Structure of Translation initiation factor IF-3:
Amino acid sequence: MVEDLRVNQQIRAREVRLIDQEGEQIGIKSIDEAMRAAEEKGMDLVEVAPQANPPVCRIMDYGKYKYEQAKKEKEAKKNQNVMNVKEVQMGVKIDDHDFDVKLKQARRFLKNKDKVKVRLKFRGREMMHQEIGHELMERLIEGTEDLGSVESGPNMEGRNMMMFITPDSDK
């Protein structure tokens, strides 16, 4: 968001360091002289560094300045890469075809540059056969290694085995 600067009558200092619209330093002037100089040029007096002693004020078109700042922020937001976490869940007794569907789903998420959280649920006595879960996770890693890399390998959290796969960045 564009931070609000003090403009014209909002400036409280008695004297200010004045800078004209080309960026040239004019010097330390009283607030009245600075306001007159800005009015003569048909511009605004904007306090750009209130913490300085005396505060630094610049003669500029404030409306145009705010517009340019908003435009820059919008452009920066557009170039920002937002990564979502998508989840793929499966059980230990998953059939080959069902596994292929889950693999396809994970590949689609990675192609869309989303991070994939794989959750393998263990129910009842399945907890005694965690090696089956590790084999399923290894199969999934092999099926997605061309699109992403494992961020955190398969590890147990209660009755679930979890793993995160991050998409490869476009370098």
About this structure: Residues 71 and 79 are 13 Å apart (CA to CA). The radius of gyration is 30 Å.
